[in-house]
């Protein structure tokens, strides 16, 4: 019984995270301002990271967790760089 519950829970989580990624991609494309696009890109990498973690739980391999960690680090650095570019017009001083 618990294996079936785990299967359906992970499947539901994957579907909902995929829908959230579609919604954030829509906001990236239709965002009225650059700040909205950056926030949606931030949400997109968080959703991608969580989707990889769910895949790692489902398949029981550690490679998904490592890739999720790399995505989170690169996403944070990218968000900071884009925010700095919007505030000052340059990334490297």
Describe the structure.
This protein has 93 residues and is an all-alpha fold. It has one domain: Helix Hairpins. The protein contains 3 helices and no strands. Helix 2 (34-59) runs antiparallel to helix 3 (63-88). The longest helix has 29 residues, at 2-30. The relative contact order is 0.11. It comes from Devosia yakushimensis.
Low-pLDDT stretches are none
Kindly identify the CATH topology.
Helix Hairpins
Task: Give the second-level CATH assignment, the architecture.
Answer: Orthogonal Bundle
Distance between the termini: 58 Å
Q: So what's the overall shape?
A: elongated
Oligomeric form: single chain
Q: Sheet bearing the most strands, described?
A: none
Subcellular location: Cell membrane
Membrane topology: Multi-pass membrane protein
Keywords: Antiport, Cell membrane, Ion transport, Membrane, Transmembrane, Transmembrane helix, Transport
Organism: Devosia yakushimensis
Main attributes of the structure:
93 residues; mainly alpha; Helix Hairpins; 3 helices; elongated
Layout of SSEs?
Elements: H1 2-30, H2 34-59, H3 63-88
Helix pairs in contact: 1-2, 2-3
In short:
The chain is mainly alpha-helical. Helix content is 87%, strand content 0%.
């Amino acid at each position: 019984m618990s294996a079936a519950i785990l299967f359906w829970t992970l499947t539901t989580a994957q579907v909902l995270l995929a829908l959230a990624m579609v919604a954030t991609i829509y906001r990236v494309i239709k965002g009225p301002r650059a700040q909205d696009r950056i926030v949606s890109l931030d949400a997109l990498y968080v959703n991608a990271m969580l989707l990889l973690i769910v895949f790692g739980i489902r398949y029981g391999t550690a490679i998904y967790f490592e890739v999720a960690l790399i995505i989170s680090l690169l996403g944070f650095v990218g968000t900071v760089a884009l925010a700095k570019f919007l505030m000052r017009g340059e990334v490297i001083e």
